[in-house]
Amino acid sequence: MWWPANHTTTGAPGSTITFEPFVGGRVYERTAAGEEIDWGEILTWEPPGRLAYLWHIRADRADATEVEITFAPEDERACRVAIEHRGWERLGARGEVRRDANRRGWGGLLPHYVAACAAAATG
User: How far apart are CA 54 and CA 24, in angstroms?
Assistant: First the structure.
């Protein structure tokens, strides 16, 4: 619900991002026109504490990296979110360029997540 359209592969208004809630589930974008673009595959689904997935957006699945996100409660109203994006070394010379591009992507995406969490906490 919080994922911004300008952070999708198509940039199409009305696109949604789906993480199917089970191991083996897909991570994909669906445009308002119904086109689906695979982004990855769920490796670990352990709500509310942990999620891991293969990430191969705009790349061959054989070149997937792995993202692991953990959620650790700090108190009744706060949670620490840790993200580890690994596997870049498998890509050889391309790994550093792709890692840097993804780092910029996380930097543009995470403020939307933080804002949605803050709105939910006050709403």
Answer: 10
